[in-house]
């Protein structure tokens, strides 16, 4: 199948409508914490608050979302003020005395937990950068660039952060180069930073060299420091949706670089490998974990369907199609789009359920917790709507729109 021009327009309209009239209204304005700042995001299917604690990384992600909507969709004052509330909460409460960020806060900003990772920091970078662009706040811009520098230090300086494991079996995960690549992309696209292009090249090179395994057609979640596969349960565990998120970050970079053919090939290869391993051919949807050699996976939720991998696959397949015009990606996009909006979407209350059983039935009804909030789904709907707007509005960008093609 190919998408026609009208079908692409309809897709763009669908994603924009879902974002503005279904997803965002579930969260706002009720999630704005008028007393302490930031956002109250731990919510049941009907929006009922189930806990008033705050996950720091989702505070940053939410501030990023609101500022990004202000920058790219419409300059609504409530979006700018909402982003400011999150930025102020982060800066007032979420940094420890050593400069690192906490992970889990009480509503009033008292710290509860701190993790060994620095992903709270990466999301604070993109939040401050997007807010700086929206508001013109130079302190926010300086904070974004400074914090980005700290993230690079954390990633490249052995011993700077407390290790999670001993030195018996050293490993590294794809998450660090992936997330730092996207952080650099966001920083570059909002306020700019001269370090970004070279760092993005470095992260892509590391992913391609160490994590993409052409001989077994796979993208590893973690490897030994030299890129070899660690033949133990943790080392063999794959997360198809996460790898496909990395694929679309690379495809996004290809698009930024005037449709760079090498990066398109790399991103599509990663998508191809992990679609084959991740798509459930019996029930549909994306498995959460797989074993690289097809052995049993340790985690009991390995065959569940989580919301966020589907958001990433929806973006990746649509982006791959626009860059290649390969009908395979249109077919895959339709498959994952239809499955996800049929099973995850709550047509009565809006937004998506987060956790489904393998067969697509709802496992539990929460739409917000320490790990789920207004990020993956609204980012997907925003990105796809923007992509379709750019595509339909600029027919010179692609041959897809030059000729109406029929589905078959």
UniProtKB/TrEMBL annotation:
Entry keyword Isomerase: yes
Pfam families to which the protein is assigned, alphabetical: GlcNAc_2-epim (PF07221)
InterPro entries: 6-hairpin_glycosidase_sf, 6hp_glycosidase-like_sf, AGE/CE
Keyword vocabulary terms for this entry: Isomerase
Coiled coil: none
Family label: Belongs to the N-acylglucosamine 2-epimerase family.
Designated name of the protein: AGE family epimerase/isomerase
